[in-house]
Design goal:
The structure is a homodimer. Helices cover 72% and strands 0% of the residues of chain A. Chain A is mainly α. The longest helix of chain A is centred in the middle third of the chain and has 28 residues. Chain A is elongated. The first copy, chain A, starts with 8 loop residues before the first helix and ends in a 10-residue tail after the last helix. The interface between A and B is medium-sized, with 33 and 33 residues. Chain A binds a DNA duplex through helix 1 and helix 3.
Amino acid sequence: MGEDRPLRADAARNRGRILEAATRQIMARGPEVPMEAIAEDAGVAVGTLYRHFPTKQVLVVAVLAECFGALTSAAEAAADRIDAGASAIAEFTAFARIVMEDAAGNLAMKAAARSLGADVHEAEERSRGEAAMTRLLDAAKAEGTVRPDLGIEDCYLFFITVPVDQPPAMRDRWFELMIAGFRAGAVSRSTAP
Amino acid sequence: MGEDRPLRADAARNRGRILEAATRQIMARGPEVPMEAIAEDAGVAVGTLYRHFPTKQVLVVAVLAECFGALTSAAEAAADRIDAGASAIAEFTAFARIVMEDAAGNLAMKAAARSLGADVHEAEERSRGEAAMTRLLDAAKAEGTVRPDLGIEDCYLFFITVPVDQPPAMRDRWFELMIAGFRAGAVSRSTAP
DNA sequence: TCATATGATGAACCATGATTCAGGTTATGG
DNA sequence: CCATAACCTGAATCATGGTTCATCATATGA
């Protein structure tokens, strides 16, 4: 089924350049950047883009996979630090901040945040990310510093609702409220009316 | 400067139809609905749309003003009920729910939520809304059921971050977390680590 | 070195959608 | 009942951007 025939040298080089250019352009200008712009950045003709990626969507998904991969690595690193004795709530919060900043500064992620539910990430990549986030959540719950009913869905909710095009001060405020909501009731219900 | 020359009968009728059609179409299909679609719905030719509204943006803004007006009325009604003795937190929460549902179900509001910061609402309409929300906030703060540092910005933040295209269950969950964040620390800091 | 499969090119094609305008209608005041 | 200013119509114009394909170039194995 698959063709493993090794790419011709120039083709391999172009493929790499295209992916780099696409990443650069999509992160900086968003998924709505014209294919022409990506082609120019890569130093090839549009036709070449289509030889390597049948549609624009495929290219965008490829770029997103890279971006999500980076976030997943950050989550894993945080979880590792917790295992090594770091404060779970501190690591959890720090990771959340990274997610927020990424969603706001990386136009690729910003778009992804808006359309999650679409077939954005491969099952494989996704499950790796979920595993890492689960480690973070479980550690924080064991520590008793977040609501015991938090789940992966809440993490997605966090990502999805980052106020991406608000000024930094506004985002910081949102972060505070959101984290407060994640912690609320962690120890007691004393704030209920 | 302004021209008060009364519109010709047919022109007035068309203007009305156009506004109705635009409201219907934009609320149902979003601001990206083609002008053609609005014209057809209104039973006029595109040219007529442009006679009454110089650009699409003007038409969209007009529709948004209507929508915001409706929300403002809801806020005022809630504030009135509080003045009449109703629970502030209950009214506040109920109003928040209305906002959420509107943002999710009305594609015009959904788009507005995404681009707030743009010149969406007239200063006049806006201040009326802010006045109503301030009444709600003040009452809830006086009651001691929300964080004492909540402000108008937080209300915008709420509106802006509604997870508009998630399934209802997800939105409800978000609502719970968000309201928890709004209340957190209202009475005590007992939930701090 | 050569044949040729693989790869590259970019103008052309197609679709969508905002906006315009030349020409045909009609409400309305006199 | 007219004259005519206001209106309306909708095909045409522009602009954007994804995708294709006939044509040309070259990497590579024999």
